[in-house]
Request: fold
Amino acid sequence: MITKIGSQAPYFEFLDGIKGKNLYDLKQKYHIVIYKADDDKLEQYEDEFEKANVKLIDYVQITTKDFAKHFGLDENKDFFILIDQYGVVQYVSDKVPSFEEIMNLISFAEDEGCCAL
Reply:
């Protein structure tokens, strides 16, 4: 089953440093950006994301099998998933937006509420 925008994100686990964490460790605290990019330009903004309460997760950190397939995405190609702090999927794309575009998406989702995108 494909997870749709506006629905709850499927459960996932990931590595944060050497610790294992999961979706429930992040809900109510962070917006979540999960991405895969051959040309990773987001990593340089990790501190800015953290200051904005956005958890940046590179797909290689995800330990849940076939996670990208829940969104109809190919795990061998670039993709981007935005999940809000309530665990609701706000945006899914097969292209990774720039840092500025991501921050605009988050701001718009916060201002307009669930599924505004």
Notes: Strands lie at 13-16, 19-22, 31-36, 54-58, 79-83, 89-93.
